[in-house]
UniProtKB/TrEMBL annotation:
InterPro entries: Peptidase_M14
SUPFAM superfamilies reported in the protein's UniProt record: Zn-dependent exopeptidases
Peptidase M14 domain ranges (all copies): 30-306
CDD domains: M14_REP34-like
Protein name in UniProt: M14 family metallocarboxypeptidase
Pfam families: Peptidase_M14
Domain of life: Bacteria
Similarity-based family: Belongs to the peptidase M14 family.
Species of provenance: Enterovibrio norvegicus
Length: 306
């Protein structure tokens, strides 16, 4: 593994201050439309689901409203399923996989579950194709008390305000080539550290919770997804992104202590999905379908527990 401390912003070995963060923000630009790509699909669901605006980003509240979508006729006797997407806004299939599930498959499961879906937690990140928010904070390390990310704080307040117990939570993500070419080097520079190169895994994998791994649950998701796309192999050291593989396509993180989205609900069953959209073996739609398959695999497993 090689290291580097070269990045066009900042001084090697010194964490960024406000000036460097402003320089970084100046390099960002709008590359696609949240309104056209996402809000239009949310609007199309309003005749079948309850849609609530739970927040808006301060950088441009009119442009970046945040929406939650719920199945109708919430029933306290049913377990509640939380699905989040777009916590990292640039991870496209997380957003569109969540919306595709609602449009195409949620109706088949509403007799068993209540659904809460936040399909695009980070709309500015979606438009600028970015991992961070405008103040160079990673929302997916910010699901903590007094969160430095309004994206994370707003969705946590929304879910808490509903007053329901979240039984299971699927957080939809991607691992991309730009993680290594752009985002992790930027992270190292921001924090005044050397960048350590790693290998981007080619295929789908999940991240379970070290404290509550639910191995059979993770396996059910992997088995359903492998009908749609390939599963990421371990590297030569038996790892995926530096973490030991627990079973085919599964690694574990201490989710709550890292401030990750899947750790904020204290749910009984949780997973973070990771699709690899840059593989030559997949299309964009297959990536969306892999996210839908992950949700479907989780739900089928949970139904069979009853």
């Amino acid at each position: 593994m090689s290291t580097s401390n070269s990045f066009p912003i900042g001084t090697p070995g010194q964490p960024w201050g406000n000036e460097e963060k402003a320089q970084w923000l100046a390099t960002t630009s709008i590359k696609r439309s949240y309104k056209d790509d996402v809000l239009s699909k949310i609007d199309a669901l309003r005749d079948r689901f309850d849609v609530t605006q739970y927040g808006a980003l301060s950088i441009d509240p009119a442009r970046y409203p945040q929406f939650g979508i719920q199945s109708r006729n919430f029933d306290a006797s049913k377990p509640t399923m939380l699905i989040t997407g777009g916590v990292h806004g640039y991870e496209t299939s997380g957003v569109h996989g969540a919306l595709k599930f609602l449009d195409s498959e949620a109706d088949a499961f509403v007799e068993h579950f209540n659904f809460i879906v936040a399909p695009c937690v980070s709309p500015w990140g979606y438009e600028t194709i970015n991992r961070w928010n405008p103040i160079a904070v990673d929302p997916n390390r910010s699901f903590v008390d007094n969160s430095p990310s309004e994206e994370a704080a707003n969705v946590m307040a929304f879910v808490k305000g509903l007053g329901v117990e979240v039984f299971a939570h699927i957080d939809l993500h991607e691992t991309t080539d730009t993680d290594e070419s752009e985002f992790r080097p930027a992270l190292a520079a921001r924090d005044g550290k050397d960048y350590e190169e790693d290998i981007v895994p080619d295929g789908f994998y999940t991240v379970g919770d070290t404290e509550n791994p639910n191995s059979d649950f993770q396996k059910a998701i992997i088995d359903e997804v492998r009908t749609v796309t390939h599963i990421a192999p371990a590297d030569a050291d038996g790892n995926i992104i530096g973490s030991p593989v627990q079973q085919d396509g599964v690694i574990n993180y201490p989710l709550a202590s890292l401030g990750l989205c899947n750790g904020f609900t204290a749910c009984k069953f949780g997973t973070t999905t990771e699709v690899y959209p840059d593989s030559p073996k997949v299309t964009d739609e297959e990536c969306n379908d892999a996210q839908v398959a992950a949700i479907r695999g989780a739900l089928k497993y949970l139904i069979n527990l009853k």
